[in-house]
Amino acid sequence: KARVAVVISGEGSNMGALLYASRLPSSPYEVVLVASNNPDAPGLALAEAEGVATWARSHKGLAREAFDDALHEALAAARPDVIALAGYMRVLTPGFVRAWEGRLLNIHPSLLPAYPGLDTHARALEAGDRHAGCTVHLVTEEVDSGEILGQLPVAIQPGDTADMLAQRVRLAEHQLYPATLSAYVSRHQDAGWIEGQVDALAAALPEVL
Ligand code: GAR
């Protein structure tokens, strides 16, 4: 199975969705680490209760590069094939993004390219949109603009507030993220891209010969 590290800042409901989906027998990935810049993130307690390794350090008082270096080291030690940002509310440094290029996914609460950044639901309501939604995309140095891997629209209902809409978009996110991550790692596993897979092949080679 592909090794996935999840990075969170808060509630961690998307992390929970990724974790429980990984425990279905058919899952092509397992969650090997949950990391956070917020030691009080409720998602960390959930991960611990479920027996998943966690790492937490507050970013407060640290320069951006220093924090991202610490995060990078903690992640690298867990040897992830893929890192899934799930409600991680900080912009990553270019060096960090380059180090994990092609292996770094994010979920964003809008139908990108509409509404990158914050306050997506209020902006969709204000614009009178008929649909909000969510997007899973590859992370690149420019915020919320990497290749789109999957999207789900969510109908806006009369009388919706930003909070009501956020709650329904989250339901959609919980379906979209595990499915899109599974498809992504399966695609790359087939291509022999996942390191674990390559190692396993290398180890098996002498027996084959
Ligand atoms: C999710 O809706 C996610 O899309 C959003 O934060 C929420 C986290 O919820 N992410 C962003 O806005 C990233 N800029 P969760 O902690 O319950 O998964």
From TrEMBL:
Domain of life per record:
Bacteria
Q: Which residues form the Formyl transferase N-terminal domain?
A: 3-180
| The keyword Transferase is annotated on this UniProt entry | yes
* Site note Raises pKa of active site His, residues: D144
Catalytic activity, reaction form: N(1)-(5-phospho-beta-D-ribosyl)glycinamide + (6R)-10-formyltetrahydrofolate = N(2)-formyl-N(1)-(5-phospho-beta-D-ribosyl)glycinamide + (6S)-5,6,7,8-tetrahydrofolate + H(+)
Keyword presence, Nucleotide-binding: no
Q: In which pathway does it act?
A: Purine metabolism; IMP biosynthesis via de novo pathway; N(2)-formyl-N(1)-(5-phospho-D-ribosyl)glycinamide from N(1)-(5-phospho-D-ribosyl)glycinamide (10-formyl THF route): step 1/1
Which residues are noted in the entry as (6R)-10-formyltetrahydrofolate-binding?
A: R64, N106
Q: Which UniProt keywords apply?
A: Purine biosynthesis, Transferase
Q: Using the UniProt record, name the top-level EC class of this enzyme in a single word.
A: transferase
Positions contributing to N(1)-(5-phospho-beta-D-ribosyl)glycinamide binding = G12, S13, N14
Q: What is its EC number?
A: 2.1.2.2
Give the protein family.
Answer: Belongs to the GART family.
Tell me, in a sentence or two, what this protein's role is: Catalyzes the transfer of a formyl group from 10-formyltetrahydrofolate to 5-phospho-ribosyl-glycinamide (GAR), producing 5-phospho-ribosyl-N-formylglycinamide (FGAR) and tetrahydrofolate.
Q: What is this protein called?
A: Phosphoribosylglycinamide formyltransferase
